[in-house]
Design a protein that fits this description.
It is a single chain. The chain has one domain: Crotonobetainyl-coa:carnitine coa-transferase, domain 1 (Rossmann fold). Helix content is 38%, strand content 16%. The protein is built from 7 helices and 6 strands. The protein has a 6-stranded parallel β-sheet, sandwiched between helices. Strand 1 (9-13), helix 1 and strand 2 (32-38) form a beta-alpha-beta unit. The longest helix has 24 residues, at 162-185. The chain is globular. The two termini are 33 Å apart.
């Protein structure tokens, strides 16, 4: 672990692989990463593989080195708290990583109204806002058709979540780049990263 990003505060509201991977990389480089989840855990909190005690190795692995807070996002007060956390004041704050939908209480429009210089990196499935995950993007770009055993015509989805991992790394790079731009011009911005675009560009 390095302390190259020491002093930077990043708020993460995300689930599954790409968004949490981005936060993990930033934390491993010294940023203070504060993750929020719904009370009771997010949609990936109990994802396989599990320990004998029922804890998710997957979730623990992606969220080590982060701070965590549980919020009741079903209530207006909880949603407002998430907004305030993402847009908290301070020179080294105003950095938000998410894969929540483009619209809604965590939209860039809603958040930038609270902090105009907010930098937000939003991981998406498809560029038009439709949901997508690594294995559905894999199918769409044809990866299952060229993996598997040569003597078996059935398609096999690759076990490595390549687009999630590449997008997580690209998201961390994009966040730091946008923060550098903010240091020059004082402007906030949203960077949208669809898994589908990363997959298409990588295969090209």
């Amino acid at each position: 672990m390095y302390d190259l990003l020491k002093g930077l505060r990043v708020v993460e509201g995300s689930a599954f692989v790409a968004g949490p991977t981005c936060g993990l990389y930033l934390a491993q480089l010294g940023a203070e990463v504060i993750r929020f989840d719904n009370i009771g855990g997010g949609p990936d909190f109990n994802r396989w593989p599990l320990s004998r005690g029922g804890d998710s190795f997957y979730w623990e692995g992606l969220n080590k080195s982060k701070k965590s807070i549980a919020i009741d996002l079903s209530r207006p007060e909880g949603r407002r708290l998430a907004q305030e956390l993402a847009t908290a004041p301070g020179e080294h704050g105003g950095a938000f990583v998410t894969n929540f939908p483009v619209e809604g209480f965590l939209s860039y429009e809603a958040l930038s109204a609270l902090r105009p210089d907010l930098v937000c990196v939003r991981v998406m499935g498809w560029a038009d806002g439709r949901p997508g995950v690594d294995y559905t993007i894999n199918a769409a770009v044809g990866v299952p058709l060229f993996t598997g055993h040569a003597d078996d015509p059935r398609p096999v989805n690759h076990i490595l979540p390549a687009w999630d991992l590449l997008t997580g790394g690209y998201a961390a790079f994009s966040l730091v780049s946008a923060l550098m731009a903010r240091s020059r011009d004082g402007k906030g911005r949203e960077v949208r990263l669809p898994l589908s675009d990363i997959a298409a560009a990588s295969l090209a």
